Amino acid sequence: MPGKIQLLPEELTSRIAAGEVVERPASIVKELMENALDAGATDLLVVLEGGGTVSIRVADNGIGIDPDEAPLAFQRYATSKITRFEDLWSVRSFGFRGEALPSIASIARVEMTTRTRSLPVGVRIVVQAGEVVEVSEAGGAPGTTIFVSRIFEPVPVRKKFLRSETAEQSACLDVVLRIALAHPRVRIRVTASGRDLLNLPATEDPAERSALVLGPDFAEQAVALSGTAGGSSLTGFISRPERTRSSTKQMLFFINGRYVRDTLIHRAVMTAFRRRIEARRYPSALLFLDMAPAEVDVNVHPAKMEVRFRKPGEVFQHVHDTIERALSRFSPVFPAGESPSGEALRPPYATGRVEEALRRYMIRSEGEDSRREGGGVPRYAPPLLRTESDGTAGFAPAVTEGRSYGASGLPYAYIGQAAGTYLLFGASDGLLIVDQHAAHERILYDRLQRREQDRPPESQRLLIPEVVALPRKELRFLLENAATLEDAGVLLESFGGDAIVVKALPAFLEARDIRSFLLDLAEEVGRDDPSGRGISPLRDRMLVFLACRGAVKARQDMSREEALALLTALGDDPQAATCPHGRPVVVRFGTAELEKMFRRR
Ligand code: ADP
Ligand code: MG
Known about the structure:
CATH superfamily of the largest domain: MutL, C-terminal domain, dimerisation subdomain
Strand content: 15-25%
Number of strands: 22
CATH class of the largest domain: Alpha Beta
Bound molecules: adenosine-5'-diphosphate, magnesium ion
Number of helices: 17
Strand order of the largest sheet: 5-4-3-6-2-1-7-8
């Protein structure tokens, strides 16, 4: 039923606009907290009733608002943060559109009490469904408190879209936790229905804050990274590759302190982790990217959750390279911080400070058994980051001081082989279990790859070149890719007709049946990337295949010397935490874990 074209009344347009900014209670929490941070607050209190569906209060100790200007804050496009269009390219504040307060006030009742430091009294303003209904003097400490109630009452349809109080509350908490991660210097508390939900002390150490927010599971194994490129800097933490998750929930990206969802950064992270983790598994990554505001447009999304980079290629490279560098310093054999070849890693959470903070400030999640044996660090699982059991045993690196390495150069003694496949090594601080096939495969793959980059591969000429006849499809595939194969040490040529002649094979390969080796190669490498990620070029698949073929098999005997040699090679191989298929290579049980298993603590 099309009608006449007419201008909508302001009351209606503001509610429509509000729909974009204020989707649910969590959006209110986000906007109010961001305003508080923009006002320089160092202490934030968030009080939720009904999970944020009944009321939300955010109190800050920021600069406050001058009583004369306070009513303006509720007018659309009223902001103190920019004055000219060009300012958009230099703003560092969260806000600049002047939309949040009027939007919230158009769908709820908002009571604001605010006082600047310079004035003895402040002002209290009540706005309801967009109308200022009360302005009066108010006392109180400097800062601003905003109390939002009757949420979505003027727009009953939106109320219907709300989920359960629990779900809304956990969305609110997610917002708070994301902000908390990016602002360790700000003290943040949350109470819900009278109970303490979160109490994060201010800290200078981002590691301490992220340990508190992401919990001990993350804290135990994350490694700090940092890198700068062309005026932007990246800092943060990533998980060791053997600690993967089934979802991307613990991949959190921040640009200039603002949480964003960004596919470019996601891809850069996944590319750096490629060949280190299995398909459809994800690392944990907490990344803070800081760059000149002019390099990134944050004005492309109503809630500013998505951004556009001026130079996406450079951002990708920067993120990718920084993570790759950090990953290349991991050694699965040496505990964190003791990389034998690379520079020392800083084990960010091994500090007493962090442990102390964990002990003091972790608030137990609901329903958790608070009388767990031995006390220790209580597990706190905020909804955002609920830890899942990820099927891998503990890899937590234990940091011990004054270690002396034995004759083999390794602080481990070989115990023996279990189940024909797993090599056991004992150490003064735990137990190491190595999957012999996966380990060897990883070592060969990395060697092949290094060799490809530096010098020609070590291949061995066959005493008698072998002529094999092959089906046409396989034949064509091998001949078409002869150059790539040669780079990897497989030298073959056409022998006319349906035959090829094989002249050399990689030195580590013992191909007894060359024909079936070639058939397998053509079949497995020629196939489309089974991981479905489409980022595995042919050459790489070739190396994976050769490494797999050359590696010692499962259920194959290993001598003590071979076992120790394998472990030594692993210790020298920075990527060796996982095999080229992404499965773990080494599982490490630290003393603490062993003690836990035997209930000694
Ligand atoms: P924006 O943040 O985009 O400027 P808002 O509608 O969120 O727009 O806020 C409007 C103005 O109100 C801000 O520019 C700021 O001057 C003031 N303001 C809002 N919240 C606070 C606060 N907690 N402390 C101090 N000033 C605030
Ligand atoms: Mg704002």
